[in-house]
């Protein structure tokens, strides 16, 4: 990474971590918690759905499993000073990711729409198990975590910082994948998996690595969420709308990019929370989701970040051509000229 890029990344991380110190309004901090949560989820989904091109619709299952692991353990154990549930997050993420590897190995043998069906089936299997394993999950009655003894005036801050830490970790992981052989392998798989396999790319290993990282990050975020809300039940913890949110934010910002899912989450997550506050349980924000999805598909099929990058590149090329006295080509000429 160039020094300028490292400096910009450091400034962004400082701003993210300092945000709770800029306000004490609980409703703003609550929106901030869910914004960094969805930004982390969108980045996690982007690893398998964006870079590898495998459209998982079952990530809410990993989110819910992480939430239940945290809730079940701390339903029977003390949270101490309140920070112990944060310290076990890496264990939760790794445990869920390793447990899901056999499922991933089977699911990733399918492709495209079949993979999407397999993963959404997994979501409903996990939700059904959460309903029926009553002795473990307490079924539809739900399960709670002991509330932490945090100061009510700054109650949201520890949860925000935990979510922000996972979000920044997801950004680092995405950057490392994007600039590694694994990232190139995933992009090759998304372009043409058979051809990638033919030229020697270890397609199964690359897909499993992306799935493992994506699952671990999603499960850790689910665990923090469960601790934040302190009470979960199956249709709340394993909610398909969580998957829809992370997918839509990734598509809006731009798949297979570092900043695309972040931009999508910064736009949609606060709007979702605001509409939820205004209209309660009516879920009118789903209409906004549908409208945004249509706009993205029609006007920004590649997402905001790739579209802006292409526009900026075109302007620079036009400026260089004008400086050199060369007449810029139209887009049709650019396509047809060898």
UniProtKB/TrEMBL annotation:
The chain crosses the membrane at residues 28-48, 57-74, 86-107, 114-133, 159-178, 199-225, 283-305. Its main location: membrane. The keyword Nucleotide-binding does not apply. Keywords: Cell membrane, Membrane, Transmembrane, Transmembrane helix. It is a multi-pass membrane protein. It is found in: Cell membrane. GO terms for cellular component: plasma membrane. GO terms for molecular function: branched-chain amino acid transmembrane transporter activity. This is Amino acid/amide ABC transporter membrane protein 2, HAAT family.
